[in-house]
Design a protein that fits this description.
By secondary structure, the protein is an alpha/beta fold. It is built from twelve helices and 13 strands. Strand 2, helix 2 and strand 3 form a beta-alpha-beta unit. Bound molecules: NADP nicotinamide-adenine-dinucleotide phosphate.
């Protein structure tokens, strides 16, 4: 297959590009820094700053599929400027991708776009499949406008799948890498009471879902990107302690996180209990369903 990938240099993108090239696909990365992208990934890259212009139609024309991962990192202090970057990189950035797709000839048949579990808002113990109602906090609004922009591609005739990604387990980056230092020192523990659910997914399964959605004609619409069983934060902390052979009992108060990260702390003090109903219905074979095993695997790299 010939596949173009935005955000290819990121945590998920770099793993996905390796999987695509590993199975013989021809990949082109779209990056703000194509020289660095080619150096890092070993594939050709074209320049695209997603806020500056429509995606280059020549990089999209004739592809068998497009995977859209690019966007401003969410896990940072939400200053006014950061919030705006997070928001417009998803809404305007994705609209600019769709504008490029409109000009592409021949047009690719499928777009697989990232989205996030945050689309449901903070939902306590409620089990959330893809039919659940959506949230209305900042992150939920970001994800809603992101998915709405991606749906613009279906009006152009593309099949569109949106992977509502949970917490990706990969020791090389993302949430797990941020959690590791205190846990390694034996001062990690449950956050803000630990009752909130964490919809985790091993990076290998994130990649697996993107590949399945790229390949499978029946994959369209929202797809919850999480392992079959979400766990509470306290249980996740215990499992991480076990994986690292460290105690994980020191509670981290929500107030301390809010002092450090401001409003962004809500992505760890709240949570979602997602159920991957669509992926299960489509017969996806999970590589990692047990959290202890998934953590050991992620930490082994
Ligand atoms: N990792 C998770 O746990 C998780 C959970 C839920 C959702 N997601 C979503 O899934 C997607 C991929 O996740 P990831 O963890 O791989 O992301 P990541 O590591 O932050 O990488 C995203 C890529 O997007 C590009 N980018 C970053 N900031 C940008 C900006 N302001 N404007 C334009 N492009 C920008 C960068 O590529 P270039 O520098 O090459 O342009 C970067 O490599 C993201 O959209 C993320 O929000 C991830």
């Amino acid at each position: 297959m010939r596949v173009a990938v935005t955000g290819a240099t990121g945590l998920v993108g770099s793993r996905l590009v390796a999987a695509l090239t590993g199975r013989g696909d021809e990949v082109t990365a779209l990056s703000r820094d194509p020289v660095r992208a080619t150096e890092r990934l070993g594939v050709p890259a074209e320049r695209w700053d997603l806020l500056a212009a429509a995606a280059p139609a020549d990089a999209l024309s004739g592809r068998d599929g497009i995977i859209h991962l690019a966007g401003e990192p969410v896990a940072q202090r939400w200053s006014t400027a950061a919030r705006e970057q997070i928001r417009i990189s998803r809404s305007q950035g994705t609209a600019n991708l769709v504008a490029g797709l409109a000009a592409a000839d021949p047009r690719p048949p499928v777009l697989v776009s990232a989205s996030a579990s945050g689309i449901y808002g903070d939902r306590g113990d409620e089990e959330l499949d893809e039919g659940a109602s959506l949230g209305d906090d900042f992150l939920a609004e970001v994800c809603r406008s992101w998915e709405a922009a991606a749906d613009g591609a279906s009006e152009l005739g593309l099949r569109v799948a949106k992977i509502r990604t949970g917490i990706v387990l990969d020791a090389g980056g993302g949430a797990l890498a941020k959690m590791l230092p205190p846990f390694r020192l034996g001062v990690g523990g449950p956050v803000a009471g630990g009752h909130q659910y964490m919809s985790w997914i091993h990076v290998e399964d994130v990649v697996g879902l993107y590949l399945a959605a790229l390949d499978g004609d029946e994959w369209s619409g929202p797809v919850n990107g999480c392992a079959p069983v979400a766990v509470r934060n306290a249980e996740f902390s215990r499992a991480l302690g076990r994986a690292l052979h460290r105690p994980a009992v020191l509670p981290v108060p929500g107030i301390a996180l809010r002092a450090m990260y401001g409003e962004m702390a809500e992505i760890v003090t709240g949570g979602q209990r997602m159920v991957p109903a669509r992926a299960d219905a489509l017969g996806y074979h999970w590589a990692h369903t047990d959290l202890d095993q998934a953590l050991r695997s992620a930490l082994a790299g």
